[in-house]
Design goal:
By secondary structure, the chain is mainly beta. It contains five helices and 37 strands. The strands form eight sheets. A seven-stranded mixed sheet has the order 16-15-12-18-23-20-21, with no helix packed on it. The structure holds CU-O-CU linkage and copper (II) ion (2 copies). One copper (II) ion binds at residues 411, 469, 471, 474, 479. One copper (II) ion is lined by residues 411, 469, 471, 474, 479.
């Protein structure tokens, strides 16, 4: 054999071995990348229901709440103490509740040993009490924002917003619900007994590293941390006994990066009655509802006496290409919450045919348009800069914002202060699930959404609101921008203008 031939044979086998190894490694990564907890465990833990926060009403009629952020330990599994953070407890926080027109004040104490904050996600309120990254509460410090609730009944939530560290603070357990009521919602014949036929369902994905909550991002997970199991209200493998024919679930995706498509194994239809910012005009029947991080949906489910039915999250075909679906969580499925119906159910009144009145703008009076190009490296080519105001909006006007994702991975888009209307998804009228008031919208790769937003202020040229991707790893990396609401002719002050 010639020397050349021998060298070629050796080289050939080396290449083959390397190719096989790489191929094998890839096949191993690929097949191991999708997660399913479907049918794998029995759901034997009684679902925790976050307590309604106590409040007092002071002389001028202001409802006053107290929240204390603190570190603690939580037993997610019996006998295993996991270090966590919470509001007024060791994990998550109480449900705040207030009515439209009410003045509220929240006395917040930061008992952690690092600075944090509390942002009121979905709330329309002055920028200086929004709780964004400019309103940090020092370790050991306090902050007492107050405002008047002036928006329809809705399921909102609260969580920290420290720039660059939001993911970690939320994942450690700092999140809670903020339910708003109004006169009309109080009169509607909807399930509304908190914890009985009206259940808060805060969904988070987690992974444990021994006793600790693991936050590590796996190879090729460009959306951020993805857990291998889910919890509801901090309960692993939860079940809830229910005794009414109709059960309302207030679904909140409080996960840091994971998007869910909720439904039931028998594909039963349920009624979507509310989105992020409150009630739809009429209930919409569907069998799946998709929620990306930060989004909420209220659904009403019909129960049959004696049955057990699982709330499940199913694989999502709009999540991107095969690669994204596999490594970004779109192929995953989870058993989330088992509902156990009593042998005899209390009859529930039928869901009203008319629910809320839309208060979101239809865009016909828009005075200007803006474009937002979503990239993991930043929005419109710029990473977040605390000292730069990106957009200046005039108080009292409506705008149309066009948000596009061509970044090859899923993102979403959240705007502080307002509830917007989705006018179009890729040039088409939005699907039923996106027709209600929204503050966060899923924008998978290759998608363009058009939003109508109305800004009522108050004007404050010094305090910016945020808009950002609510996949918290992306937000922390800088997928965020700032806008101020000003009076006509006013300019943003105290910050450089982008
Ligand atoms: Cu829920 Cu700016 O966030
Ligand atoms: Cu927000
Ligand atoms: Cu993103």
């Amino acid at each position: 054999m010639s020397r050349v031939k021998r060298v070629l044979i050796v080289l050939g086998s080396v290449v083959t071995v390397v190719a096989l190894a790489v191929g094998g490694l890839f096949a191993w990564l690929w097949t191991g990348a999708d997660v399913s907890t479907v049918g794998k465990a029995s759901f034997d833990n009684a679902l925790a229901i976050p307590p309604l926060a106590e409040s007092t009403v002071d002389e001028d009629g202001t409802r006053v709440f107290d929240l204390r952020m603190r570190a603690g330990e939580t037993e997610f599994e019996d006998g295993v103490k996991t270090p966590t953070w919470g509001f007024n407890g060791s994990y998550l926080g109480p449900t705040l509740r207030a009515t439209r027109g009410e003045k509220v004040r929240v006395r917040i104490a930061n008992g952690l040993d690092e600075a944090s904050g509390v942002h009121w996600h979905g709330m329309h309120l002055p920028a200086r009490v929004d709780g964004g990254p400019h309103q940090m509460i020092a370790a050991g410090g306090t902050w007492t924002p107050h405002w008047t609730v002036d928006q329809p009944a809705a399921t909102l939530w609260y969580h920290p917003h420290p720039h660059g560290a939001t993911e970690r603070h939320v994942r450690k357990g700092l999140a809670g619900m903020f339910i708003l009521d109004d006169e009309k919602s109080g009169e509607l014949a909807l399930p509304k007994r908190y914890g009985v036929d009206d259940l808060p369902v805060i969904v988070q994905d987690v992974r444990f590293d021994g006793a600790k909550l693991d936050g590590g991002r796996r190879m090729m997970q460009n959306v951020g941390f993805l857990g291998d199991r889910t919890m509801v209200n901090g309960t692993l493998r939860p079940y809830r006994e229910v005794g009414d024919e109709l059960i309302r679930l207030r679904l909140l995706n409080a996960s840091t990066a994971r998007t869910y498509a909720f439904g039931f194994p028998d594909d039963r239809a349920f009624s979507l009655i509310a989105t992020d910012g409150g009630l739809l005009e009429r209930p919409e029947s569907m069998d799946r509802v998709q929620l990306s991080p930060g989004e909420r949906a209220e659904i009403v489910v019909q129960m049959r006496a004696g049955e057990r039915v699982m709330l499940r999250s199913f694989p999502q075909d709009n999540y991107g290409d095969g690669w994204q679906r596999r490594f970004g969580g779109g192929d995953d499925s989870f058993d989330v919450l088992e509902l156990r119906a009593a042998e005899a159910l209390r009859p529930s009144p039928a869901i009203p045919a008319a629910l809320g009145e839309s208060e979101t703008p239809d865009g016909t009076d828009a005075v200007r348009g803006r474009h937002f190009d979503l990239k993991r490296s930043g929005i419109n080519g710029r990473a977040m800069d605390m000292g730069r105001v990106d957009e200046t909006v005039t108080r009292g006007t409506t705008e149309v914002w066009t948000v596009r994702n061509g970044n090859g991975m899923p993102h979403n888009f959240h705007v502080h202060d307002v509830q917007f209307r989705v006018l179009e998804v890729d040039g088409q009228a939005p699907p039923a699930a996106l027709r209600g008031p929204k503050d966060t919208v899923f924008v998978p790769h290759g998608t363009t959404v058009k939003l109508a937003l109305h800004f009522t202020g108050p004007a404050d040229p010094e305090s910016p609101y945020m808009y950002h991707c609510h996949l918290l790893y992306h937000e922390d990396e800088g997928m965020m921008g700032q806008f101020v609401v000003v009076d006509k002719g006013q300019r943003a002050s105290g910050h450089r203008h982008g």
